[in-house]
Each structure stands twice: as C-alpha cells, then as structure tokens.
Amino acid sequence: MTRLRWGMVGGGPGAFIGGVHRRAAGLTGQYELVAGAFSGDAQRSRDFGQMLGMDPDRSSGSWETLLERELALPEEQRIQGVSIVTPNHMHYPVARAFAQANIAVVCDKPLVHTSEQAADLMRIVAQTGQLFAVTYNYTGYPMVRQARDLVRSGVLGEIRKVQVLYNQGWLTTRLEGQGNPQADWRTDPQRSGIAGAIGDIGSHAENLVATVTGLTLEAICADLTTFVPGRALDDDASLLLRFQGGARGLLAVSQIACGLENDLSLQVFGTRGSLCWQQEHPNHLDLYPLEGPQQRWTRGNPAVSPAAQAASHVPAGHPEGFTEAFGNLYRGVAETLLARQEGRTPDPQIAQFPTLEDGARGVHFIEKTVESARSEHKWTDALWQSPVSPALPNRS
Amino acid sequence: MTRLRWGMVGGGPGAFIGGVHRRAAGLTGQYELVAGAFSGDAQRSRDFGQMLGMDPDRSSGSWETLLERELALPEEQRIQGVSIVTPNHMHYPVARAFAQANIAVVCDKPLVHTSEQAADLMRIVAQTGQLFAVTYNYTGYPMVRQARDLVRSGVLGEIRKVQVLYNQGWLTTRLEGQGNPQADWRTDPQRSGIAGAIGDIGSHAENLVATVTGLTLEAICADLTTFVPGRALDDDASLLLRFQGGARGLLAVSQIACGLENDLSLQVFGTRGSLCWQQEHPNHLDLYPLEGPQQRWTRGNPAVSPAAQAASHVPAGHPEGFTEAFGNLYRGVAETLLARQEGRTPDPQIAQFPTLEDGARGVHFIEKTVESARSEHKWTDALWQSPVSPALPNRS
Amino acid sequence: MTRLRWGMVGGGPGAFIGGVHRRAAGLTGQYELVAGAFSGDAQRSRDFGQMLGMDPDRSSGSWETLLERELALPEEQRIQGVSIVTPNHMHYPVARAFAQANIAVVCDKPLVHTSEQAADLMRIVAQTGQLFAVTYNYTGYPMVRQARDLVRSGVLGEIRKVQVLYNQGWLTTRLEGQGNPQADWRTDPQRSGIAGAIGDIGSHAENLVATVTGLTLEAICADLTTFVPGRALDDDASLLLRFQGGARGLLAVSQIACGLENDLSLQVFGTRGSLCWQQEHPNHLDLYPLEGPQQRWTRGNPAVSPAAQAASHVPAGHPEGFTEAFGNLYRGVAETLLARQEGRTPDPQIAQFPTLEDGARGVHFIEKTVESARSEHKWTDALWQSPVSPALPNRS
Amino acid sequence: MTRLRWGMVGGGPGAFIGGVHRRAAGLTGQYELVAGAFSGDAQRSRDFGQMLGMDPDRSSGSWETLLERELALPEEQRIQGVSIVTPNHMHYPVARAFAQANIAVVCDKPLVHTSEQAADLMRIVAQTGQLFAVTYNYTGYPMVRQARDLVRSGVLGEIRKVQVLYNQGWLTTRLEGQGNPQADWRTDPQRSGIAGAIGDIGSHAENLVATVTGLTLEAICADLTTFVPGRALDDDASLLLRFQGGARGLLAVSQIACGLENDLSLQVFGTRGSLCWQQEHPNHLDLYPLEGPQQRWTRGNPAVSPAAQAASHVPAGHPEGFTEAFGNLYRGVAETLLARQEGRTPDPQIAQFPTLEDGARGVHFIEKTVESARSEHKWTDALWQSPVSPALPNRS
C-alpha cells in the first residue's frame, strides 16, 4: 500500500486533537508521519517526533523551518500534505504558507478567524487546485453519511425543520487558568477568535446541518451568553435559523451543560419522514416515516447507502466510534490524493471530506452569529457566497 | 370515601380530552360525575350521560341550562365543581359563569383567548376564593415533581439554561377538514385562539419550565411558522428565552415533526448539576452532577421526594403513564376541596395542581409569543404580572 | 353504560394487588363494586367497604358470609362476578365456591396450589360454562397483543428460540418478618405454595411466552435457589425449556436482582424475524427482520393490529402503563359478560383475557419446575394436558 | 517510541479478524508488522504483505517457512511476537512452534481444540516464561475493566447471580457454502472444533464472566441446538451455571437470533448492588445500588477506576468502540514486552490481557459444555484446574 508522506503542525505533548489526528490517520494505514513542528521548542518537538518513531531531523521548532526544510527536499521525499492542529489563531498563516507551497492541507476547525482570511485561502487554492480539507469530523460517521443519503434519496420529502443541539459540560466551572491547556486557549480571544462555544462546537453543528440536509442558511437570530464569571467568550449559544426555500431551524450549543459530555444530536423533519441521529450513540439513526413503524438503521446493515457502507470497518453490532469517524475524513483525503497520484478517478463513496468551502462558510457562520447576537434586529442575513468563481467543489 | 359531585362541560361523543378527564378523575375514586353538558344537542348529551351511568335529567344541551339546573338544586345535591373540556373559545364564558356561581372549576388549557379574559377570571376568583385549576397535566407526573423538588433542594445549583422541546407529528399533513374534529378546531382561529402549536403545546412547555425551575420569564424572541399550506395558525414555533436573574432558554414546539408522537423533553442546566426528563419515558429522570456518575431516579424509588412518592400509585418498575399523571391533578383538586369540606389542612404533598395564575400566565405567554413573532425587534418583553393584588396562590 | 355488579375477596387495608384490581376495573367504567370480604375482621371489612363508597351491609368478614348473603339476594341485585385477590392459599376454596354458585370469577395468579385443585375448578367450570379469568396482567399490554399478532401473522417465520427474563430486586434482603405483608406471605409456603419467585413471577413469564408464541412447552430443566438465609422458598430460578416442534427457550426469574425493579423482557427469535418487548418500556416493541432496518412498533400507531389498537386508550406518545394493561383484562371480562347478558357476540378484539386453562397450565408449570429442580435428570416432562374434554376455550 | 517487531499468521485477503488485529495493534503505535504468513499461497501472501508496506521477502506461504526465516535472522531483526489469526484448527501447531521458539504469541480464541493441546502449550510456556495472550477482546473495553474493578472493590457485595447473553443473527440462514469464508470455517468441525456458537461466542461469554466476577465455575447444565438444517455444529446454546461459593448463573448464546447483531450483555447481581453492561453500548455501565438512584458510569468520567481510565483514549462522550477495546489488549501486551525489554516494571493498569490460562480454561469450558449437552445428568462438573504448577499468572 502506497502511503502518503505527511507532516503535522501542532499536536505536541499535552495537546488533545493532534493525537486524535494521528490515531485517525493511523487507522487508515495510508499515512506515514515523517515531519512535524509539534512544539515551539525545537528540542521538545524533536524529542516528540522521535518518540513517534520519526527521523529526528524532520521535527522543527517552527512551522516556517519545517516548511523550508521540506521544500529543500526532493519532491519524492517531501511531505505531500500537512495536518494543522494548532490553536485556531495559527491556522491561517500556516495553512496559507503550505497551500501556497502546493502542499495538501488538512486543517482543524474552525478554519480561520475572519472571512477575509478564508477568502484569501480560497483564492490560493482556486489557483493551485491542491486539496484542502477541514476536519468537521462528525461528518465522517457512517450514519451521518447515511442520514445525508436518506435526505438526498427523498425519503424525508421536503425538509421543513432542523434541530441541532450540541451540549457539553466541560466548561461549567472556570477551568481556564488552572492548568488545562484546552480550556486556556479555547476561552482566549487571541487564540480562539471572536467566539467561544459557537466557534468551537457551533461550527460543527452548522456543518452537520449543511452536510446532511444540503440546505442553504439564509438568516439567523442568535443569543450568545457567557455564564462563567471572568470568561471572555461565549460559553452558550441559542440560534433560530431560516433556510432558503422556507425551512426553519434551531441550533443550540453549550459548554456549561453541567455533567453532559459530548451530546450532539440532529433532528430533521420532512414532509414524508423525519430522522434523528445522536453522536453519543453513533452506530444507528432513527427514521420516522409518515406511516408505519419507526425504523432504526444500523451501521453495517446491508441496507445502508454505499457511502455509509464504505465508511464502516467492522460488522454491525461491533461499535465504531469517534476516532474511526475522524479516520474516515483522512481516508477520503488519502483516496483523493492517491487517485491523483495514480491517475485514476477516486472512489466517490470514499473520497468524502469537508472542504475549504465548508471551512469558509463556517467562519462566515461564526461571524454572523456574533453580529446577530450584538444586534437589536431579529434577523441577520447569513447567506454565504463563495469569494471565488467558479466555486470550489464542496464536500468533494 | 366521600366523593365530590362533579359536572362536565364538553367531552361528548368524538371528543378526546373529555374522556381523559373522566378516566383521570375516575382513577382517584374521589369524583362522582353527576351532571354534564356534553354536547350542544340536548338528546345527544342526555344519551351520553346515560351511557356514563348518570341520571339523564342532569345532562343538558347547553352549559347555561346545566348551570341553571344545578343552582336550582339544594346545595348538598348540587355539583361542587365542573370540568371544562370544550374547545378553547368556550373556556372563558363557561369558566366565568361557574366561577361566579362559586363552583370549583377545572379548566383545560390554554385557559382563555386573551389576557383580559384571564384577568377577569382572576378578579372573580380573588373574590370568591373558590378553587380554579388548569390542566397542565404534565406537571402531574411524579418525576416532574421530583425534578421540581431537586431544583428546589439546590442539587442543581443556580440554573443557567433551560431547554424544552415538544415535537409532535400529527399535523404533518392537512388533517383539518378531513373528519378529524381535533384537527378541525385546533387549527381554527375562531375556536383555538391566536395561536396553533404554540397555544396547544407551547403553553404546556412554558408551564413545565415554570413549574420545574421556578424561573420568571422576562423576554422572548419567537419565530412562528405555518408549514402546511392552507392552514391558518402556526404549526411550528422556536423561541429564545431570557429569565430574570440571567438564565437563558430555548423552547421549541412543532406539530409537523413527521412521525414523532408526543416528544416533550426538558433539560435544565445548573451550576452544580443538570437534569433531563422525557415525557415518553416518564418513569425516570436523569441527573448529571458536576462530578461522579450520572444518576437515574425512578418513580417509586424510596429516594424520591415526598411529593413524587405521593403522586406514585404502583411500585417502581410498574410503569405509570399519561392518564395517571392527569389523575394526580384531579387528586390534588380533590384533596384541596375535601380538606375544605372537612375543615382540615390539605396534605401539601398531594394538594398540587396548576392554578388560575398558571393559566393566566400561559395566556400572556401565547400573546407575547405571537407579538414577538410579528416584531422586527429581537426581544419582546414577556414578564407577567398578576392583575390581582395580593396575587392568587400559585400551584397551591 | 350498564355496569357489572361486582364483589371482591381480599384486598383490604395494606394489601397491594386489591387496589390495583379496583383501579384497573375502575378504568373501564364497566364495574360497580358492590360487595366485599376485604378483611377477616368484619368491622374492618365494613369500614373499608364504606370508605370505598359501598353499602356497609354488603361487606363481610368472611367470604362464606359474603357468598351466603349474595345468594340470598334476588339475582338482579346479586353480584355477577367476584375478584379473588387474597394470598394464594385462599384462591382455591373461594374460587371453587363462587364458581359452583355460577358467579363469574377473576382470580389472581398463580391460580391454586396444586394441579388437582386446578382440575377440580376446570371440571366445575366445564359444567357451568361460567367465565373464569386469571390475571396474568402482562398479557393486557397493547404491545404484548401486538407481539402475539405479529407472531400469528407469520412475520417472524417459524419460532426457534424464546428468551424470557424477569428480574426484581425487592427481596434482596430479608424483608419478611419486618412488617411487609407482601414479603411475609410470598415467602411463606403455607400461603404462597411450593414455590417462591417461580410461582409469583415465573408463572407470569410462562404465561407471557405461551400467549405471545402459542408454543407448547414439552420439557424443562430447572435450577431453583434460595439466596437469602432463612427464607423457605426459592428467590431465584433459571430454566432451560423445550417446546413441541423443536423450539428452545430460556426462562429466568429472580427476586434478589438487587436494585432492579420489575424488569420483565421477552425475546422471540424466528426464522424470518425476531422481536423484543420490555415491560418497563411497554409502549413499544422492536422487530428485527431478516433484512432491512429494525422496526419499532409503538402503541397507538395505526399500523398495529386490531387487538393492539383496541387495547389502547390514549394516542401514541401518551404513555400507558401497568394499571391500564391490567384494566384491559377487566375490559375483556366485561365485554364477554355484557355480551352474554345482551345476547350479542362479544368483540373478539376486546374480549381477551387469560382463562382458567392458562391458570391450570401455570400451576402445572410451577409443579414441574419444582420437580425438575429436585431431579438429577436433566429434562423433566412438562407437557400439560387438559383434565376436561373437550378443552375449555383458552384465552377466549 | 520503540516499536515491537511483529509477525502474523493468517489474516490474508478475505479474512475478517486479521484486519481487526492489524488495526487494533496499529492504534497503539507500538507495533511494526514486519513478517507474515498471510495465505497458504506464497505469491498471494507476498503481494498482501507488500500491500501492507512490508518487505516482500518476509512474507511466506506457510508458517513453518515464516518461523524458519525469522529464526535465521539475528535476534535484533527477528520478530518479537506473532499474532495467530487463522481458523481455530491451526492455532495449536502454530502457537506451539512459536512458543517453543520463545517468541511471544497473541492467539485468537478459542485457543485450541482440546484440553490436551492447551495443557501442552501451558507446559511449554511455563518453561520459557514467554508472553502468551488470547484475544478475548471484550475484556479490553474500559467499562468492562470498570465493571471488574467495581466488583473487586466490593460495591456489589457478594455476588449471587450472573446473567450473560450473547445473541447474533448472522447464521440465521444457511450462509455456509455460499461464498462466506467466515461462515464456512466456523460451521466446519474440522476447522472450528467440537463446537459452533458455544465455541465462537460462548467462550467470549465465559471469559467475560470470569474476568468481571472472578468467580470459579463449578458445574454446568447445557442445551446445545443446531437449528439450521444441514449444519454440523451447534448454532444456539443455553446453559445453567453453578459457581464455587454458591453463586448461580445463566449463559446463553445464539447465532440464529435473526436480525440481532452482536448483542452481548452481562448482568451481575450482588447482595449490595447489581451491574449491567452491554457490548453494543460499551461506553457506559449501569450500577443499581441497594438504595438510592441508579448510577450510570461513563467511560472517561474521572470517577472510573485507574484501569478504566488507562484504557480510555478520547474524552467522555466521544465514543470508543470495538477496535479500540481490541487495541487495549495489544497495548497490554506491548506494555508487558517493552517493560521486560527496558528492564522496568510494567504499568499494572495497562499491562492487562487474557492469558494462556484464560485460553485453556475456555477450551475446558467448551469441552464440558458439549459433554453436558450430551449427558442425561443435569449437572456436569466443570471445575478447571491448571495442568502446570505453580499456575501461570492469569490476566497478568
């Protein structure tokens, strides 16, 4: 199996999401991590790379050095792609530099701090044609793909209402400033951006709705709250949504939902059926048809869609989870890059991942939510339009 | 066991809620239905009463006749209370007349069409001191009382956010005009009032939040939608809520949630714990403390509060349901009336039911929701103030 | 509505199941409790009857007196049926006397202490033709009737295996002798019979299997255990089952399943589908077809069978529970008796209840279980054959 | 990170469990697969190894060649361990040869066909002291370790009853002989051994009970059935169990439970509490204390035991699944081997995996089950005694 030579920026000792990316990519067997700038401290980065079994000379203390060194290598040794798993504020400069160097990018979400930055990235990628993925990882779950395919198949009829709720409790108390690096940067506007909960998990919720329903968001009405004293960013958000064509929605996220873990759920109500999926029980989704008994579709059941089948790795009843869903994005990226390399058409059931366009739209969503929360007017226009023309392919 | 002599207005052949009231009251063993105006057709009403085993002469074709006849009886034969189970538009005149006649009233929800009507009733009842209950029946579930008592006990700390969702699918298609009397009147502004889903089930959601949390609603931001073509009233609503003291909320109801049945759920997030209760699985509630394992409290477990114990009739694991919860309101009413009759203090763990004040506040909530939905401004003031002073006792 | 004049033996102050019978019968609106022998103390029985709103002269301190008095009344005043809700040891003499007097009997389970007693009752009833019901109440749940009808319809194909588990925790500690009358008599061989858990709840499990699957039990292999020191009867039982035609089964009950409430579940595996029903979540059943998604059938869904529809009283999503299921047996009895009285054919979807034959077969099951538990041989023949010919109608 | 040089026997194209082993080991990052005998066809094996990114010269067409070649390598290049993922009949010769060569073995379950073979392996390993693990993978779930630790901590008191059920539906129809290699060899006595379902999944159930409860099985009473015509081995089994000290149990497995997936559940009833865990929802377990509310312990909650914490890789609410549980066994093996290599004490919270003793006891369990099923006597002695002295360490 040909493996992609890969690099990573961020994700050193103490980081959370970097390890998830490595384990997720590792599950595919299609990646070889060969270079990294894991930490701002060169020696720490080097030690960490060595611990991962890498050549120590390919770990750097800065992404600039990493990029410089890689570009100095012959193309057949150079990394083919990079995963950016830093706090948010570093996404833009790093992604920009690697994209300009025509290196494939897998970037954590939310993409960048501003729509201008997102547009800049889109213009670069429109020129290079290089792959750029954004890890809205919940779309990697087989049953999310099944949900999307059920919607596309028309089983639900016309969609009328969408309800997406994402409740976590980990920031119920003032965790920041107490030695939890996650809490520290997520609640820091310098590193996290203009939004807290709505940026961190609200963007996941937006992407899940867009991916499953295909609906275009038109307007929002938001209420953002900071409950924990001394915190600089929102830790709770509730939004009313309006979509093109008349569908309505509800999106609520919280990081002060005391005792809840990672309770993301999606409900879609259509004229002929409804569906419900819950992230904490990801191996099934429930379909409520207009008539007849309710249906529970399970991962691995031969009745699920080809994309849901392709995203499934062990038989039904053998639970898959978060890391495998995350891995499916990496598998989609690998399928796309390897197909290019091998001059073949990628398998469309596998080559699925959120794109730069998803990322850019997510940034716009965050901006509009904050704008709406500050506004006295009920509805804030939230229609996103691609800054490049023709549009980049979405969810390629 | 002394039984209360009782009357009923509405609830004849083909009606839904009237039968529920009769079965619920029947469960208590404390009521004897002796008089009724079940139908506008005198003979039909008479036949129906006879079918129920009543003296045919005490069934009338109009509530006016019923009242007149009862008042002509000696007090020891006259009905002590009446249940009003008509479509909404009849609640006000009937309730007014019986309340003025100093007869106890159990009225279905929503109470009346306008706040002025509600205020009028409150002024009457403030004078007579007679009992007036409004059947927000979900508050009769033992585990709703347990939820309220957990909040009161401080187990949840300070409440920050409330999420109440009530999704039904029965009006997904245009059922009205097709021989379904429920659908007919519920979607008819003349009989249902200014609101559809938000009036019918949104008022339940409002009451559930108020009962469990004790929070005072301050402002709302509403989006009301009518999805089914040709329908005159909203069949879907989403609201942002703000409470006094800073808590926030989310209230969403739908009657076009295709395939869903009666999916009412409540989540309350506090500084020290959260709770979740679901009407379709009413015999337990889940408590999520800040630390340690989650807890599932079950009806009938000796650890639940005295009021939850008192509202429970069979041992844990022997499911109770909707009708029994409804019956608990009737039991609360009976306990109150019988205690008055017997000159004793009612048992406070039993004498629980939503009062006229709950009903009036619910009407105000509906009005403010409609006002907000029509407004361009994000927040509509929704604080309710009692039109009588001193206030009537709430949830006595 | 014509109401049946009814009597009750047992069920006085402190009893559990008597109140359930009264509430269940009350839900139908078809019964008028007019006579009783609630307690062995005549004054206590009288007071209790008065508390229930009965004529004090029709409450007696013994069932013999009760029967004598009733037989002295003209037939149009005399009770038409009696509910026997005493501890088990009283079932036989009371049932025998009332059956001989041609009064309809509703008897709690298990029916009697010995197969000889059961055969005697069957011979009497074969002569009188009078109704005799045994309250295996779990068969009154709408979704149990749906399960039976799904099996009968052939949706499951040929049944291969049945798994019925019934776990309770209430006898985990030595509750008897501590003021709990239920625990006292249930663990007392004089009053409970030769079996503890297997008699009390194992007989429910046996009846549930027979009702839903229609299979004929052929042989059993049982292990009975008494875990709580000092207890005279089994508090735990596990059985292997063999049915005619080759199906196999597993039946396990426990009353020392610490912390569990009333966890009765049934799984049936067929050649084309399986089903699962759980008593603690009685409003749905899950069907697992050989191919395609799983199905959840809910009470009140128009897709369920006529008998399931007929046993349902409020719409889907408005939970029904234990008492309503119990009430459905009383409704079946009333439909049968009233149809006889009115000279019409009873509605077969309503006139459903476990019969004397179910009761007799249950006694045989208990005897064979105890015999098997004491045997060194693996399989004990457990085929039941009716002592009367032609057989009484089963589950009429 | 030092990685273990590893080999694999079996697991080539079309195999199921080999891929699971590779993905599971891959998740740890502690293994490098360097040699294999994936297929009996040398070229196929070579191609498969190459596809996995291995040196083609280290893939062989037979395990004998593989072993010979490895032994010819200097020790620092030679594989340190091997995973045996062939059909059952190959476990014994392969495991024997590698164990004798002092190479660590990870062998799939059930271990071998006979207790004599198991004893032989035990004697070899008792001499070499080399690691030998058997992949009873369900014990790798964090919440299974939590269950075991709750039992050990005494929270449940003394254990009275154990109920383990494992229902699958994949062999409901005659899948064998239809191009499904799994079905082919699992139903073939030559390759699968004397047992079908009881060998394949019954052995998992036995191991789960032993791991969680620590109880010693004393006697069994089994019923084995072959439902599908033409099948040679059992596809369904039900067993009564007796443990030393008086606890009782129930173990049932089926592979004809139509439509069920991989429904393994464990219930343990103690004098002070009970627990329930379900493999299809593996991220939590429910604890039912004698008093107070039920508790749901979730993976990742800081309240779980150190071993459960150590086996968890992403935060609570981010589901982990089957592959990660399997990976935890490989992590335990790696921790043990690497600690030896590094001359340190392994971390006891990590170095956990089922051992050769578990494997041998499992073979004995299968033999005794088949013996019991064929016996007319109710109870078959099933006490297992180690053939080596001192006993090998169990679950080291």
List the helices and strands and how they pair.
The structure is a homotetramer of 396-residue chains.
Chain A: E1 4-9, H1 17-28, E2 31-37, H2 42-51, H3 63-72, E3 81-84, H4 91-100, E4 104-107, H5 115-128, E5 132-134, H6 142-153, E6 159-167, H7 181-186, H8 189-192, H9 197-213, E7 217-225, E8 236-243, E9 248-254, E10 263-270, E11 273-278, E12 284-289, E13 294-298, H10 306-310, H11 322-342, H12 356-374, E14 380-381
Parallel strand pairs in A: 1-2, 1-3, 3-4, 4-5, 6-9
Antiparallel strand pairs in A: 6-10, 7-8, 7-14, 8-9, 10-11, 11-12, 12-13
Written overview of the protein:
4 copies of one chain form a homotetramer. Chain A is α/β, with parallel strands linked by helices and 396 residues long. The first copy, chain A, has 2 domains: 4-137, Rossmann fold (3-Layer(aba) Sandwich); 141-314 and 356-380, 2-Layer Sandwich (Dihydrodipicolinate Reductase, domain 2), CATH 3.30.360.10. Chain A is built from 12 helices and 14 strands. In chain A, strands 13-12-11-10-6-9-8-7-14 form a 9-stranded mixed sheet. In chain A, strand 3 (81-84), helix 4 (91-100) and strand 4 (104-107) form a beta-alpha-beta unit. In chain A, helix 6 crosses helix 9 (197-213) and helix 9 crosses helix 12 (356-374). The longest helix of chain A has 21 residues, at 322-342. The first copy, chain A, is globular and about 60 Å long. The model of chain A has no long low-confidence stretch (mean pLDDT 96).
Give the rounded overall mean pLDDT of chain A. 96
The domain count of chain A comes to: 2
- Main sheet makeup of chain A: 9 strands, mixed
Element order of chain A: H for helix, E for strand: EHEHHEHEHEHEHHHEEEEEEEHHHE
Secondary structure class of chain A reads: alpha/beta
Which spans of chain A of ≥5 residues are poorly predicted at pLDDT below 50?
Answer: none
Helix content percent band of chain A: 25-40%
CATH architecture of the largest domain in chain A: 2-Layer Sandwich
Our count of helices of chain A gives 12
What is the CA-CA span between the terminal residues of chain A? 23 Å
Number of strands of chain A: 14
CATH superfamily of the largest domain in chain A: Dihydrodipicolinate Reductase, domain 2
β-strand percent of chain A reads: 15-25%
